[in-house]
């Protein structure tokens, strides 16, 4: 995510030299680099001009403390300016309405609206376990759009209001709202049709849908990979509808980042969520300060802690802690459980990308999907073992390794490599015997307690 921009800012920090304070002279080259980095990232020109002027005004005359280099002091100024450009803080959904709180999704075809409805309904269900959520598709133009939303609703465990391509979008939305009121739903999410380009008929239709259901949230879903086009489209929708926020999809595929840096400034509407990946879990609340930190190579430790909190199954962790406390060894069943929990946190690549400094940079060097493939291979090897072998890995000698390799579609060398990885994890867990995973969980909870609410 935003790799090109991050790499450019990293070089700016290293190249800046100066004395006891930042001056117009010693930041001149750095400002030129900032300007070029933003333009290459497809940030809108008016945004670039204002941003550079803002950074210059803040930086000139700033004293440099003994603990900072000129580069670090300058990047500190850039970090603050980036955060403010993208909205300062997370803007959550406003569901404080007489039920049902209606959320209308708008956007062009291919932006990922329907998938985002599924992702967002899953997120709301996880955060508000007692809320009843209903979703409906008013997209009568795209083949299989209604069926797609029905499948997603079943996948995430929310209710689906049936619709048909013979119906009018306004009638569908009105009927769904009436049903939601009568059956005491807390939230109604309405998916609308997209087009390949903005046209008058499309805008007239979505205005009519909006008027019929009076949503508390009107969210514009836009593909971040469109760059400057994404910002232009957002502006057009903002002029047609009273938007309350933006959702940027496909952020994991956008190495430039122009849309994320421009859309708030151009529309005046907050980015509320970003879509990362195709998995149903791939939707995150947008935190400007965290994205600014990631862009500038500082990592995103707060999001990482949240991933750990969501990924660790407390019951499994407590069972493992008790097992270790009783002196029972960490076996291959536990190793497999660790891998599964890492997957729940978004996978090793996602975790590493949020680490600061060199570890975060290392993640960018790993070809996409290779870490996930390696974890899948480890699981396949463990699944090819007998229950006794998993519980007592010392039993696994040459003949057993050949059988396991054959059963998992791997080689003996790969089985040996996996066993070595297991031994390293085993040693780490032994060092945590006085608490095991429970200790790790307490650490994570303690760190979460320090997070801003």
From TrEMBL:
Gene3D superfamilies tied to this protein: P-loop containing nucleotide triphosphate hydrolases, Signal recognition particle SRP54, nucleotide-binding domain, Signal recognition particle, SRP54 subunit, M-domain
Protein keywords: Cytoplasm, GTP-binding, Hydrolase, Nucleotide-binding, Ribonucleoprotein, RNA-binding, Signal recognition particle
Pfam families per the UniProt record, alphabetical: SRP54 (PF00448), SRP54_N (PF02881), SRP_SPB (PF02978)
Localization terms from the record: Cytoplasm
Sequence similarity: Belongs to the GTP-binding SRP family. SRP54 subfamily.
Domain notes: Composed of three domains: the N-terminal N domain, which is responsible for interactions with the ribosome, the central G domain, which binds GTP, and the C-terminal M domain, which binds the RNA and the signal sequence of the RNC.
Record function comment: Involved in targeting and insertion of nascent membrane proteins into the cytoplasmic membrane. Binds to the hydrophobic signal sequence of the ribosome-nascent chain (RNC) as it emerges from the ribosomes. The SRP-RNC complex is then targeted to the cytoplasmic membrane where it interacts with the SRP receptor FtsY. Interaction with FtsY leads to the transfer of the RNC complex to the Sec translocase for insertion into the membrane, the hydrolysis of GTP by both Ffh and FtsY, and the dissociation of the SRP-FtsY complex into the individual components.
Subunit composition and interactions: Part of the signal recognition particle protein translocation system, which is composed of SRP and FtsY. SRP is a ribonucleoprotein composed of Ffh and a 4.5S RNA molecule.
Name under which the protein is recorded: Signal recognition particle protein
